[in-house]
Fold this sequence. Notes:
By secondary structure, the chain is mainly beta. It contains 5 helices and 17 strands. Strands 2, 3, 4, 5, 6, 7, 8, 9, 10, 11, 12, 13 and 14 form a 13-stranded mixed β-sheet that branches. It has a 4-stranded mixed β-sheet with strand order 1-15-16-17. It is globular and about 60 Å long.
Amino acid sequence: PMNKFKIILLIGFLQSFGVVYAKDESPIDSTMFTVGYNFRVNTKNADGVPVVDSLQTVLLVGHQYTKTMGYHCFWTKINGETQETFDLMAGEEKAHVPTILRDIAQKTLTVYEDIPVHHYVYEESGDRKWQMLDDTLTIRGFLCSKATTNYAGRTWTAWYTDEVPSTAGPWKFSGLPGLIVKCTDEKGIFNFELFELLNKVFPITNEEAKRPNMKIKRDKFVERRNKLFLSPRYLQDPLYYHVPSDTDHIGYSLYSIEKTPRNPDGSIPLNMLTKVINGVAIPWKCNEYQPLELK
Protein backbone atom coordinates (compact mmCIF):
# COMPACT_ATOMS: atom_id res chain seq x y z
CA PRO A 1 0.00 0.00 0.00
CA MET A 2 1.11 3.56 -0.62
CA ASN A 3 2.65 5.26 2.39
CA LYS A 4 0.71 8.12 3.88
CA PHE A 5 3.01 11.02 4.69
CA LYS A 6 2.37 13.83 7.11
CA ILE A 7 2.98 16.82 4.84
CA ILE A 8 3.11 20.39 6.05
CA LEU A 9 4.25 23.70 4.59
CA LEU A 10 6.71 25.33 6.93
CA ILE A 11 6.86 29.10 6.74
CA GLY A 12 10.18 30.35 8.05
CA PHE A 13 13.22 28.13 8.07
CA LEU A 14 14.17 28.76 11.68
CA GLN A 15 10.88 27.59 13.04
CA SER A 16 10.94 24.48 10.88
CA PHE A 17 14.31 23.42 12.22
CA GLY A 18 13.73 24.40 15.84
CA VAL A 19 16.79 26.61 16.04
CA VAL A 20 15.24 29.80 17.36
CA TYR A 21 16.49 30.77 20.80
CA ALA A 22 13.65 29.88 23.13
CA LYS A 23 12.94 32.51 25.74
CA ASP A 24 13.51 29.93 28.44
CA GLU A 25 16.70 28.58 26.82
CA SER A 26 19.37 28.76 29.51
CA PRO A 27 22.81 29.71 28.18
CA ILE A 28 25.66 27.43 29.18
CA ASP A 29 28.23 30.18 28.57
CA SER A 30 28.73 33.55 26.89
CA THR A 31 31.14 34.64 24.19
CA MET A 32 34.32 36.62 24.64
CA PHE A 33 34.42 37.01 20.85
CA THR A 34 33.13 35.39 17.67
CA VAL A 35 34.99 34.39 14.51
CA GLY A 36 33.59 34.04 11.01
CA TYR A 37 35.33 31.59 8.65
CA ASN A 38 34.93 31.15 4.93
CA PHE A 39 34.78 27.42 4.22
CA ARG A 40 35.51 26.37 0.64
CA VAL A 41 35.44 22.86 -0.79
CA ASN A 42 36.91 22.03 -4.20
CA THR A 43 34.76 19.35 -5.80
CA LYS A 44 32.90 18.42 -9.02
CA ASN A 45 29.30 18.60 -10.11
CA ALA A 46 27.25 15.73 -11.52
CA ASP A 47 28.77 16.36 -14.97
CA GLY A 48 32.33 16.09 -13.62
CA VAL A 49 33.01 19.82 -13.96
CA PRO A 50 35.19 21.33 -11.18
CA VAL A 51 33.19 23.59 -8.87
CA VAL A 52 33.68 25.20 -5.47
CA ASP A 53 31.16 24.80 -2.66
CA SER A 54 31.37 28.03 -0.63
CA LEU A 55 29.96 28.18 2.88
CA GLN A 56 30.58 30.14 6.05
CA THR A 57 30.86 28.94 9.63
CA VAL A 58 30.98 30.79 12.93
CA LEU A 59 33.10 30.05 16.00
CA LEU A 60 31.73 31.22 19.35
CA VAL A 61 34.55 31.46 21.90
CA GLY A 62 33.38 31.39 25.49
CA HIS A 63 35.00 30.97 28.87
CA GLN A 64 34.18 27.27 29.30
CA TYR A 65 32.95 26.25 25.85
CA THR A 66 33.43 26.98 22.20
CA LYS A 67 30.78 26.29 19.62
CA THR A 68 31.00 26.07 15.83
CA MET A 69 27.99 26.02 13.51
CA GLY A 70 26.64 27.50 10.29
CA TYR A 71 27.37 31.24 10.19
CA HIS A 72 23.93 32.30 8.96
CA CYS A 73 22.13 29.84 11.22
CA PHE A 74 23.67 31.64 14.18
CA TRP A 75 23.27 35.22 12.99
CA THR A 76 19.67 34.71 11.95
CA LYS A 77 18.93 33.73 15.54
CA ILE A 78 20.46 37.03 16.66
CA ASN A 79 19.28 39.45 13.96
CA GLY A 80 16.14 37.84 12.56
CA GLU A 81 15.38 36.43 9.15
CA THR A 82 15.43 38.03 5.69
CA GLN A 83 15.07 36.40 2.27
CA GLU A 84 18.86 36.60 1.80
CA THR A 85 19.75 35.06 5.16
CA PHE A 86 17.01 32.44 4.72
CA ASP A 87 18.60 31.30 1.44
CA LEU A 88 22.12 31.26 2.91
CA MET A 89 20.98 29.42 6.01
CA ALA A 90 19.11 26.89 3.89
CA GLY A 91 22.35 26.24 2.03
CA GLU A 92 24.18 25.55 5.29
CA GLU A 93 21.48 23.18 6.49
CA LYS A 94 21.35 21.29 3.19
CA ALA A 95 25.16 20.95 3.29
CA HIS A 96 24.77 19.40 6.78
CA VAL A 97 27.27 21.76 8.41
CA PRO A 98 27.75 20.21 11.87
CA THR A 99 27.33 21.97 15.18
CA ILE A 100 30.24 21.21 17.51
CA LEU A 101 30.38 22.05 21.20
CA ARG A 102 33.83 21.87 22.77
CA ASP A 103 34.40 21.64 26.51
CA ILE A 104 37.63 23.62 26.81
CA ALA A 105 38.80 22.15 30.12
CA GLN A 106 37.88 18.53 29.29
CA LYS A 107 39.05 18.78 25.64
CA THR A 108 35.97 16.89 24.52
CA LEU A 109 33.71 17.51 21.55
CA THR A 110 29.97 16.93 21.32
CA VAL A 111 29.10 16.80 17.63
CA TYR A 112 25.58 17.27 16.24
CA GLU A 113 25.40 16.26 12.58
CA ASP A 114 22.76 15.05 10.16
CA ILE A 115 22.47 12.12 7.80
CA PRO A 116 19.04 12.65 6.30
CA VAL A 117 16.53 11.88 7.54
CA HIS A 118 17.89 11.83 11.09
CA HIS A 119 19.79 13.99 13.56
CA TYR A 120 22.81 12.32 15.18
CA VAL A 121 25.02 13.11 18.14
CA TYR A 122 28.36 11.66 19.15
CA GLU A 123 31.31 12.55 21.36
CA GLU A 124 35.05 12.40 20.72
CA SER A 125 38.31 13.77 22.03
CA GLY A 126 39.16 17.27 20.86
CA ASP A 127 42.83 16.88 21.71
CA ARG A 128 44.95 17.24 18.54
CA LYS A 129 48.67 16.52 18.31
CA TRP A 130 50.36 19.40 16.50
CA GLN A 131 53.84 19.69 15.02
CA MET A 132 55.06 23.28 15.38
CA LEU A 133 57.03 24.71 12.46
CA ASP A 134 59.17 27.83 12.03
CA ASP A 135 57.34 29.35 9.05
CA THR A 136 55.38 32.60 9.44
CA LEU A 137 52.80 34.27 7.23
CA THR A 138 50.62 37.37 7.52
CA ILE A 139 46.95 36.54 6.95
CA ARG A 140 44.14 39.09 7.28
CA GLY A 141 46.58 41.39 9.06
CA PHE A 142 47.60 38.80 11.67
CA LEU A 143 51.16 37.51 11.91
CA CYS A 144 50.68 33.73 11.92
CA SER A 145 52.84 30.71 12.73
CA LYS A 146 52.54 27.31 11.09
CA ALA A 147 51.63 23.91 12.52
CA THR A 148 50.54 20.57 11.08
CA THR A 149 48.48 17.66 12.34
CA ASN A 150 47.05 14.36 11.13
CA TYR A 151 43.39 13.78 11.78
CA ALA A 152 40.90 11.27 10.40
CA GLY A 153 43.06 10.26 7.44
CA ARG A 154 44.09 13.72 6.30
CA THR A 155 47.11 15.93 6.95
CA TRP A 156 46.22 19.51 7.84
CA THR A 157 48.20 22.75 7.94
CA ALA A 158 47.06 25.46 10.34
CA TRP A 159 48.17 29.07 10.60
CA TYR A 160 47.57 30.52 14.05
CA THR A 161 48.22 33.88 15.69
CA ASP A 162 49.19 34.59 19.27
CA GLU A 163 47.81 38.10 18.76
CA VAL A 164 44.45 36.54 19.72
CA PRO A 165 45.00 34.61 22.98
CA SER A 166 42.79 31.58 22.35
CA THR A 167 43.37 27.90 21.59
CA ALA A 168 40.25 27.74 19.43
CA GLY A 169 39.80 27.20 15.70
CA PRO A 170 37.35 26.14 12.99
CA TRP A 171 35.56 22.81 12.80
CA LYS A 172 37.27 20.25 15.11
CA PHE A 173 40.62 22.03 15.32
CA SER A 174 42.00 23.60 18.50
CA GLY A 175 44.89 23.35 20.90
CA LEU A 176 47.43 25.76 19.40
CA PRO A 177 48.90 28.72 21.36
CA GLY A 178 46.78 31.21 19.46
CA LEU A 179 43.61 31.47 17.38
CA ILE A 180 43.64 29.45 14.15
CA VAL A 181 43.28 31.92 11.28
CA LYS A 182 43.53 29.49 8.37
CA CYS A 183 43.47 25.71 7.98
CA THR A 184 43.89 23.64 4.80
CA ASP A 185 44.38 19.98 3.93
CA GLU A 186 47.42 18.75 2.03
CA LYS A 187 45.42 17.95 -1.13
CA GLY A 188 43.93 21.43 -1.36
CA ILE A 189 40.34 20.27 -1.15
CA PHE A 190 39.33 22.18 1.99
CA ASN A 191 40.08 25.71 3.12
CA PHE A 192 38.93 27.44 6.31
CA GLU A 193 39.95 31.10 6.52
CA LEU A 194 38.98 33.84 8.98
CA PHE A 195 37.08 36.80 7.52
CA GLU A 196 35.58 38.34 10.65
CA LEU A 197 36.51 38.79 14.31
CA LEU A 198 34.00 40.46 16.62
CA ASN A 199 34.45 41.31 20.28
CA LYS A 200 30.82 40.96 21.29
CA VAL A 201 28.97 39.08 24.02
CA PHE A 202 26.34 36.56 22.95
CA PRO A 203 24.81 33.59 24.78
CA ILE A 204 26.18 30.14 24.00
CA THR A 205 23.38 27.61 24.22
CA ASN A 206 23.03 23.89 23.60
CA GLU A 207 19.53 23.79 22.13
CA GLU A 208 20.67 21.05 19.73
CA ALA A 209 20.60 18.63 22.68
CA LYS A 210 16.79 18.96 22.72
CA ARG A 211 16.40 17.59 19.18
CA PRO A 212 15.44 13.94 18.65
CA ASN A 213 19.09 12.95 18.20
CA MET A 214 20.22 9.41 17.55
CA LYS A 215 23.26 8.69 19.71
CA ILE A 216 26.06 6.90 17.88
CA LYS A 217 29.78 6.17 18.11
CA ARG A 218 31.91 8.55 16.06
CA ASP A 219 33.57 5.85 13.94
CA LYS A 220 30.20 4.29 13.09
CA PHE A 221 28.80 7.68 12.11
CA VAL A 222 31.71 8.51 9.81
CA GLU A 223 31.57 5.06 8.22
CA ARG A 224 27.82 5.32 7.60
CA ARG A 225 27.93 8.88 6.29
CA ASN A 226 30.82 8.27 3.90
CA LYS A 227 29.33 5.03 2.58
CA LEU A 228 26.04 6.76 1.74
CA PHE A 229 27.35 10.10 0.48
CA LEU A 230 30.27 8.70 -1.56
CA SER A 231 27.99 6.44 -3.60
CA PRO A 232 27.62 7.51 -7.28
CA ARG A 233 23.87 7.39 -6.69
CA TYR A 234 24.12 10.33 -4.26
CA LEU A 235 24.80 12.77 -7.11
CA GLN A 236 21.61 11.75 -8.87
CA ASP A 237 19.39 11.47 -5.81
CA PRO A 238 20.70 12.70 -2.42
CA LEU A 239 18.06 10.61 -0.65
CA TYR A 240 18.46 7.41 -2.69
CA TYR A 241 18.99 5.29 0.42
CA HIS A 242 15.90 6.34 2.33
CA VAL A 243 12.84 4.07 2.37
CA PRO A 244 9.78 6.26 3.05
CA SER A 245 7.94 5.48 6.25
CA ASP A 246 4.51 6.20 7.66
CA THR A 247 6.25 7.98 10.52
CA ASP A 248 8.07 10.46 8.26
CA HIS A 249 7.15 14.09 8.85
CA ILE A 250 7.57 15.82 5.49
CA GLY A 251 7.43 19.56 4.96
CA TYR A 252 8.55 22.30 2.61
CA SER A 253 10.05 25.46 4.01
CA LEU A 254 10.18 28.87 2.37
CA TYR A 255 10.67 32.42 3.57
CA SER A 256 7.36 33.98 2.58
CA ILE A 257 4.33 32.77 0.61
CA GLU A 258 3.46 36.34 -0.35
CA LYS A 259 6.95 37.21 -1.63
CA THR A 260 7.78 33.93 -3.36
CA PRO A 261 7.79 34.05 -7.22
CA ARG A 262 5.23 31.76 -8.86
CA ASN A 263 5.05 29.60 -11.94
CA PRO A 264 2.60 30.68 -14.68
CA ASP A 265 0.04 28.27 -13.23
CA GLY A 266 0.36 29.89 -9.81
CA SER A 267 2.32 27.06 -8.19
CA ILE A 268 5.56 27.64 -6.26
CA PRO A 269 8.77 26.55 -8.07
CA LEU A 270 10.41 23.59 -6.36
CA ASN A 271 13.79 25.35 -6.26
CA MET A 272 12.23 28.00 -4.02
CA LEU A 273 11.34 25.37 -1.44
CA THR A 274 13.51 23.52 1.03
CA LYS A 275 12.33 19.97 1.56
CA VAL A 276 12.36 18.91 5.21
CA ILE A 277 11.95 15.37 6.52
CA ASN A 278 11.87 14.81 10.28
CA GLY A 279 13.38 18.26 10.77
CA VAL A 280 16.35 17.56 8.47
CA ALA A 281 16.89 19.60 5.29
CA ILE A 282 17.11 17.61 2.06
CA PRO A 283 19.01 19.01 -0.95
CA TRP A 284 17.30 18.74 -4.34
CA LYS A 285 20.70 18.10 -5.91
CA CYS A 286 24.30 18.16 -4.77
CA ASN A 287 27.89 18.16 -5.91
CA GLU A 288 30.32 15.30 -5.39
CA TYR A 289 30.71 14.70 -1.67
CA GLN A 290 34.14 15.41 -0.20
CA PRO A 291 34.49 13.96 3.31
CA LEU A 292 36.44 15.99 5.83
CA GLU A 293 37.05 12.71 7.62
CA LEU A 294 38.24 9.69 5.64
CA LYS A 295 38.12 7.43 8.66
